[in-house]
């Protein structure tokens, strides 16, 4: 039986071999979840390699005693932590770290707030000043250490030259009694620009009418600051204090470049103590245990501070 074809029907183009499969991209053959995992897989592998594995291995080292010559390891349980808490050098380093954190936090908060209040005003040269203020933050810690070593030097330093101009004897700012405050000045000088821009962003959203009403009501400068400015910057200031406090508690490079933990052990904070134990004394277990003690303390303090700050902010919003 013959088949009759309609001459008016349009001819179908021949199918290209593999055209249908070639047009389907690889990402369309995967579910969105699998494609997402495929995209983040390289980053995940990198994080596992440079973050998770070292942290897990340091936890393992805190429970073993490692022979630095043979590399053999013996499980000792909590003995390394016991050695840490019974070592007077640990408590000396803890006190120095706490002292250093308080000095850095107070100085950085004061400098940041002062710069933010200054930059909030409109005056000639404000854009130039905003660019200059951020320069310390852009410097590497090594560069900052080299610069301030020349500034503090009692023989050829900038401050020594200024004292000599006024007929004063030079002061060794890196001596045993003043090394921690001097290091805190350098640390706050480098970290304060970040806080200044943090606070400046909050200051710029405060309505000017509030200050005008405060002046009408007879409020002084201090009263206007506590009643108007402080509520707006309390949360970003709290966040900055946590950041600068945690960064100061784990500071190492600035101390290493400027003082190397000296003179004597006057600037041997916990981070430098960990470096000394691990890489110079090769007491890997004790160094790892000390680092985990520092990590746990920082985590607890930071979480508690954030909880208090958020709870206070929530109560203020409910009250308003």
UniProtKB/TrEMBL annotation:
For membrane topology, the record states: Multi-pass membrane protein
Keyword Membrane in record:
yes
Which CDD domains does the entry link to? TM_PBP2
What Gene3D superfamilies does the database record attribute to this sequence? MetI-like
Q: State one Pfam family annotation.
A: BPD_transp_1
Which keywords, in A-to-Z order, does the entry hold?
Cell membrane, Membrane, Transmembrane, Transmembrane helix, Transport
Entry-linked InterPro entries:
ABC_transporter_permease, MetI-like, MetI-like_sf
Q: Where is the ABC transmembrane type-1 domain?
A: 94-305
Q: Which PROSITE patterns match?
A: ABC_TM1
SUPFAM superfamilies from the UniProt entry:
MetI-like
Q: Does the keyword Transmembrane apply?
A: yes
What is one cellular component GO term in this UniProt entry? Answer: plasma membrane
> Which Gene Ontology terms describe the biological processes this protein takes part in?
transmembrane transport
Secretion signal, residue range per the UniProt entry: none
Member of which family? Belongs to the binding-protein-dependent transport system permease family.
From the Swiss-Prot or TrEMBL record, give the protein name: Binding-protein-dependent transport systems inner membrane component
Instruction: Show the taxonomic lineage.
Output: Bacteria, Bacillati, Actinomycetota, Actinomycetes, Pseudonocardiales
Q: Which gene encodes it?
A: smoF
């Amino acid at each position: 039986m013959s088949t009759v074809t309609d001459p008016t029907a349009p001819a179908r183009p021949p199918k290209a071999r593999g055209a249908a499969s070639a047009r389907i991209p690889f990402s369309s053959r995967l579910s969105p979840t699998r494609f997402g995992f495929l995209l983040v897989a390289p980053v995940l592998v990198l994080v596992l390699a440079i973050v998770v594995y070292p942290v897990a291995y340091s936890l393992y080292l805190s429970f073993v005693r490692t022979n630095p010559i043979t590399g053999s390891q013996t499980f000792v349980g909590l003995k390394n932590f016991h050695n840490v808490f019974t070592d007077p050098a640990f408590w000396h380093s803890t006190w120095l770290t706490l002292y250093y954190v308080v000095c850095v936090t107070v100085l950085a908060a004061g400098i940041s707030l002062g710069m933010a209040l200054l930059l909030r005003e409109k005056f000639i040269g404000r854009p130039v000043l905003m660019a200059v203020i951020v320069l310390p933050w852009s410097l590497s810690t090594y560069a900052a250490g080299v610069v301030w070593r020349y500034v503090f030097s009692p023989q050829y330093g900038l401050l020594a030259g200024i004292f000599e101009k006024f007929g004063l004897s030079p002061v060794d700012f890196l001596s045993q009694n003043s090394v921690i405050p001097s290091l805190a000045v350098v640390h706050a000088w480098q970290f304060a620009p970040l806080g200044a821009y943090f606070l400046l962003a909050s200051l710029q959203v405060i309505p000017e009418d509030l200050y005008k009403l405060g002046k009408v009501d007879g409020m002084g400068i201090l009263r206007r600051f506590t009643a108007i400015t402080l509520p707006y910057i309390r949360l970003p200031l709290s966040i900055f204090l946590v950041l600068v406090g945690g960064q100061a508690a784990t500071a190492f490079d600035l101390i290493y470049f400027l003082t190397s933990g000296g003179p004597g052990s006057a600037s041997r904070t916990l981070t430098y103590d960990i470096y000394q134990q691990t890489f110079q004394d090769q007491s890997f277990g004790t160094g790892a245990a000390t680092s985990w003690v520092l990590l746990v303390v920082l985590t607890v303090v930071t979480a508690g501070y954030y909880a208090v700050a958020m709870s206070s902010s929530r109560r203020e919003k409910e009250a308003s």
